[in-house]
Amino acid sequence: MSTSSIGDKFSRLAALRPARRAPVPEASPVNGDAGEVARLLGATLGRNRYGEHLVIRRWFPTPEPCMKSDEARRTRALKMLLPNGARESGARRNARLAEDPAQWLFLDTETTGLAGGSGTYAFLVGVAWWDSGGLRVEQFFMRDFAEEHSLLLALDERLAERRVLVTFNGKSFDWPLLETRFRMTRAIPPRIPATHLDLLHPARQLWRPRLASVRLAELERHVLRVSPGSQLDWSRDYDVDSSQIPEIYFNFLRGGRAGPLVPVIRHNQMDLRGLAALAGRILEMIAGRLGDDFPDEANRIDEPLDLYGMSRLLDRRGEAKLARKTCRAAIAAGLPSELDCAARRDLARLAKRAGDLGSAVEMWESLLSPSRSTIPELKSTAAEQSLTLERILMRGATGSHAFFTEGSQLRAALEACEQLAIHFEHCVRALDRASQLTRHGLALVCRARGARRADDYTSGKEFCRRWQAKLERRLARIERKAAGGAAVLPIER
User: Fold this and answer.
1) Residue 261 pLDDT > 70
2) Where are the domains of the chain?
C-alpha cells in the first residue's frame, strides 16, 4: 500500500475530530436576532468554555415538595420506587440518596425526532428540583446545533449536584438519547445517575386498570386533577401537540419566527410540573397503604380500580402481604367483570405463593362460578372444597354458555380448572376430582369453539388449540396415575 493512500486515510479520520472552539468571552451582550429570541422566551444567556446557550429559569409554587407522611413511612414508600437492584442493596449510598427527595432531579427533553438515534438532538432540556417550598425549573435551549456542547456541559453540572434522576419514560427515551449525545461530543463523558426512577412503570401498574392511556397529560387530567384554580393550577387546554414540536424547531432553524417556540417551552415546563406532582401522588398513595389496617385517612383510596392497581404495584415491589390485603379490598369494593376475574386470579396466585392453599382454592372456585357477587368464605377441609366444586361443576354443565365464552372469563376459568386439577392431584391426592376438573376445562374449550365469534379473540383457533393440548396432556397423565381406579366422568357437552 502506498504512503499516499495511508496518508489519505489518516486525513479522512482526522476530519472526524470535533473542531476546536474559540474561547468565549466571560460576558457579551445579547443583541440582534439572538436578543429577540431570548426576550420572547424569557431567557438569559448561559456561557461556559464550550460556548453559549439560552437558559430559562422559573419557580412555581405548585406542586409543593412531595411526601408529608411520617419519616418511617416516607422512607419505606420511597424504597418501593427504587429499581430492584437498588432495593436489594438498600444500605448503599446510592439507595440512601434516592430516599431523599431533595436529591431528585426531574428531567424532560424536547427533541428533533421521536424515533431516537444518533441523528436526533435534544434541543431543549428541562430539569427541575424542589426548592423553597415549590418547584425550581431550569431549561437549556440551543439556538442551533453548534450550541450543543455548551448545553450538555450545563446539564452535566446539574447532574453533578443532584444524583437521582426522575423521568417519565426516560429510561427508554430521554436518558439513552442524552447519553448518545454526550458520547458523540467526545469531550463530555455522560454522568451516570446514582439511581434512575422512571415513573412510567408504577403509573402503568397503578392506573392502567382505570385509564385507557397513561400518558402524562392524561394522568394530570384524571388522576392529579390539574386545572386552573385547583391546587395544581395549570392547564393544557392550548398545549402544543408533541408530534408538532420537531417541525416547530426546524422552522425556527430555517429562519422562522421564534414566537411558536413559546408554547414548546411552556409544554416542557408543564411536563416537569406534572412529573413532580405525579411523584408526590404515587408516594402518598403508597404511604397511605403501609400502616396497619390502612390508618392514613388523608391518602385513603376509595376507587376500586385504583385499589386493584395499587395491589399490582405492591406485588411488583415485593409487598406480597399488603398486595393480598389491597386486592381483596378491591374485589370487595366491586370491580367490573373483566377486572374482577383478573383480581381473583392475582389473589389466588398470591395466596398460593404464600402457602395459603385454602384461600387459593376459594378464589379458583369463585372463578368457575357464574355468580361471583362476593368473596367466598374459606372452607377448612378438602372434603368441603370437593363438595363445593361438585356443585359448581354441576351448575357449569347446564349453566349459561355466555359466561364461559367471554374472553377474560374463559381464560380465567381455564386457568382455575388447571390450578385446581394440580391442587387435587398433588396436594389432596384426589385423582378423580383432578380428572373431572380437567375434563371440565376441555368442555369449556369445546363450548368456546362452538360459540366462536369474529370479535372474540380467545375463542380463536390458536387459543383453543393451546389449551386443548395442555389439558389433554394433563388428563392423560392423571389417567395413567389412576391406573384403572375410579371411573372418570364423561366430557361435558
Assistant:
1) yes
2) 32-287, 301-376, 415-493
CB 445 within 8 A of CB 464: yes
Would you say domain 32-287 falls under CATH 3.30.420.10? yes
The half-sphere exposure of 330 on its side-chain side, counting CA atoms within 13 A, is: 33
Grid cell of 197 as nine digits: 426512577
| 26, three cell numbers | 466571560
Mean pLDDT (whole number) for 250-266:
93
Model pLDDT for residues 174-233, shown as the tens digit of each residue: 999 999 999 999 999 999 998 899 999 999 999 999 998 999 999 999 999 888 877 788
Q: What average pLDDT score do residues 367-383 get?
A: 62
- Please give the full DSSP string across 365-423, using - where no structure is assigned: HHHH-S---SPPPPP-SHHHHHHHHHHHHHHHHHS-HHHHHSHHHHHHHHHHHHHHHHI
**What CATH number has the domain spanning 301-376?**
1.25.40
- Extract the C-alpha cell encoding 428: 389432596
**Mapped to the 3 state alphabet, what secondary structure does 216-277 carry?**
HHHHHHHHHCCCCCCCCCCCCCCCCCHHHHHHHHHHHHCCCCCCCHHHHHHHHHHHHHHHHH
CB atoms within 10 A of CB 371: 9
Q: Measured between alpha carbons, how far is residue 315 from residues 324, 339, 341, 349 in Å?
A: 8, 16, 17, 11
The residue that leads in pLDDT, 464 or 154, is 154
Distances 404 to 91, 122, 177, 367, 414 between C-alpha atoms, Å = 50, 51, 47, 10, 9
CA distances from 39 to 31, 42, 216, 259 (A): 10, 5, 29, 10
Q: What local confidence, expressed as pLDDT, does residue 464 receive?
A: 84
> Is 459 within 8 Å of 449 (Cβ atoms)?
yes
Q: Do 322 and 308 meet the contact criterion of CB atoms below 8 Å apart?
A: no
3-state helix, strand, coil in the chain (%, to 5): 55, 10, 35
Task: Tell me the per-residue pLDDT of 318-346, one tens digit each, with 9 for 90 and over.
Answer: 889 999 999 999 999 999 888 898 999 99
Closest CA to 186 of 139, 143, 152: 152
Alpha-carbon distance 367 to 411, whole Å? 10
Question: What pLDDT does residue 182 have?
Answer: 95
Q: What pLDDT sits at residue 47? A: 94
Q: Are strands 44-48 and 122-131 parallel, antiparallel or unpaired?
A: unpaired
